[in-house]
Amino acid sequence: MIDQDLFEISPTAQERFELVADAFPVLLVDNVYARPDEIRAAALSLDFEPPPDPYPGRVASAPDGNASLDRFLRRMLDMVNRDYLPLLPDSLRVAPLARLHSDFAIVDVHPDDLADHQRIPHTDPVPIFGLVYLNRQPRGGTLFFRKAASAPENALSAGYLTDSRDGFELAGRIEPAFNRLAIYPGFVPHSGEIAGDWIRSDERFTNPRLTQRLLFG
After folding, report:
1. pLDDT tens-digit readout, 85-103
2. How far is CA 205 from the centre of its chain?
3. Is residue 183 part of a domain?
4. CA-based nearest residue to 145, from 187, 179, 178
5. Which of 115, 138, 163, 212 has its CA 20 to 30 A from that of 6?
């Protein structure tokens, strides 16, 4: 049984905005949770399954009926509608959002085992997407890309995309920080910043990259 107060927001949470790729604002909330280590432990105890989408790992549903999580999600939905959507440029304008779904995700696919569609940036099935980075060890942030002027002539490069190649230019990055929430347009091509020895070792299972995902729709 997960504590009903587990997802309380920290009284020292700090909201700010950054411009990514000189094109769109990202809403960052640092120190968002009061008990992030306990949230990580509770999340990793959930049942993770491969998702139907091309995510290079596994996902688990957030616990239903948790009072503090319900309060957190309502507050995040209100905050995005009130503070974030008005800042988007006209080309990225989004109508007011009515729903917010949350789950947890871990990345554990070895770079040599990626399918082709997992080697390139993706867009999300919702207009606005959020991530809470729940990793004390370095596990990478979020990278944004734009299409390069010329398309690649050869097959896709091996491994996760973390720089400019294969017809994509690296345009911006969200710096990961433990217990940081980042909210951004889901329809801008992006990918997780998956690099380092951990993704090629058993650490990808024993100490995985964990994020809480927020899907605004």
Report:
1. 999 988 888 999 999 999 9
2. 18
3. yes
4. 187
5. 138
